[in-house]
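Final report, section 2: Outcomes. Of the targets proposed, Ribosomal RNA large subunit methyltransferase F is the one most frequently requested by collaborating groups, and we therefore present its record in full.
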Amino acid sequence: MPPLPSERPASKDPLHPRNRHRGRYDFPQLMKSSPALAAFVRINPFGDQSVDFANPAAVKALNQALLRHFYGVDCWDIPAGYLCPPIPGRADYVHYVADLLAARNGGVVPRGPGVRVLDVGVGANCIYPLIGHYEYGWRFVGSDVDAGALRAAQQIVAANGVLADAIALRQQPDARRVFDGIIRPGEVFDATLCNPPFHASAAEAAAGTQRKAANLGTARGAQPALNFGGQNTELWAPGGEAAFVRRLVLESQQWPAACFWYTTLVSKKETLPGLHRALHQAGAREVQTIAMAQGQKKSRFVAWTFLTPAQQAAWRQARWGPK
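The predicted structure is given below as tokens.
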């Protein structure tokens, strides 16, 4: 077996150079774009404007302001209890995937509606399609097993008319499947995105929430505030992250020509060795592990392709070349 791919270190600046959220939040500008945010802005102990990140309503109001100010999303909301994602980190994933495509396109990021991306587990927040479409003009298919999440995501798409032709949503009918039942015969994607369930059980997810709340200094007895929320399918799955990403690999092996770059976030570094072994056994032609960071939080995503160099060149010419 060849040596496992090493993890490329993140750059000195923790966020991607194209990330719009480098530096401090400009709260005066954000409140100008979204006046509702003002009700949650306070002066923190360092004398700076901020919001209480332990308050779910404040986090949602901040996300609404960020999406309106930076991405032109005028109407965004999620039902109570669903995952309210940290937008800077989500944007980083999109930009680094764009770099993967650019590396096979002469250093130029493929842009426009001809580029199609599949978001596995799009969630109620629909965050990756919103960012990816605004930044690069890509078209998205978002899949999810949760009908409620898809209804909420569809409401976001419908409320922002420019998204109607850019984002399609599909329900995964079998929670044991990922790509089967979603990718249609003859359909191809330039990349996939995935933020897999982190925990292995509901109890583990609840314990993680308790620790997170305690770290924020906001634990409230047995039921801490869920500042970023999350439903069962968003937070846990049997076997946790490691089992879910192995399933991604096994199913991607059945669709080797349907996607240029399969990718998934990997929160636990200890998941990597098993994932890399599974990819080697599946016959992946190339594997990359890209490190990311947001403040003190370290993360990464793994990308793999089954395409030969000749197939990659043909893909580029057919899908990204001059029209």
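The chain has two domains: 26-71, 75-320.
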